[in-house]
Each structure stands twice: as C-alpha cells, then as structure tokens.
Amino acid sequence: MMEYKKYLARVEFDDETNIFHGEVINIRDVITFQGKSVEELHEAFEDSVEDYLAFCAERGEEPDKPFSGRFAIRLSPEQHRKVILAAAKTGKGVGAWATEVLTRAASGVS
C-alpha cells in the first residue's frame, strides 16, 4: 500500500511487461499510475495525484477527499435489531460498539 496526501494506492506487478500498476483506492474518482521501478512508481503516484488535484482546480470542482471518518451501512431490520442488542449487551452505543468491532476486525489488515 502506498500513501500520498492521504490518498491510498494499491499496486500490482505485471510479470509479463515488468511494470508496476497502481490505482488510488480511497476515492470514487479514478487515479492510476505505473512505473518500471519502485522509485519511478512513487514519482508516478505523486504526479498522478497532483495532476488530479490540478485538473479538479481547473474545472472548479472539489476533488474527492479520502476518508471523511463517516461510514454508512445498510442493514436489514433484523440485522439492525441484532446490532442494537449486541451493542446494548456491552453497555456501549451503536457507534462506539461498531467502531470497536470494526477496528478489531481490521487490525490484521495493512
């Protein structure tokens, strides 16, 4: 995982072409980049983010902001009931309980 100005990118290596391909993953817009070396990849990532920000500025649009801190989820009524009960059993509100559960579940992810 790569990070620049809070934009996160996933990188894959194409063994046939010997090129790294990357894509920003924490916004709705599409930002891609590639490079033949790690140094070239880092430079291309930063250049692509800067180009995206400049493009948005030229168009007078706000660029997508990575990670607002808000997380919306849709549940069935039954799932919602179970979540409320699970949070209540721990003595926490749903937001605090969900944050704790999601943080614990994501702790092994880098």
Describe the structure.
The structure is a single chain. With 110 residues, the protein is an alpha+beta fold. The chain has two domains: 2-59, Double Stranded RNA Binding Domain (2-Layer Sandwich); 77-106. The chain is 45% helix and 19% strand. The mean pLDDT is 92.
Could you give a short description of this structure?
45% of the residues lie in helices and 19% in strands. It has helices at 38-59, 77-90, 94-106, and strands at residues 2-4, 7-14, 19-24, 32-35.
Kindly provide the name of the CATH class of the largest domain: Alpha Beta
The coarse overall form would be: elongated
What number of structural domains do the residues give? Answer: 2
CATH architecture assignment of the largest domain: 2-Layer Sandwich
Instruction: List the strand order in the largest sheet.
Output: 1-2-3-4
And the CATH topology of the largest domain? Double Stranded RNA Binding Domain
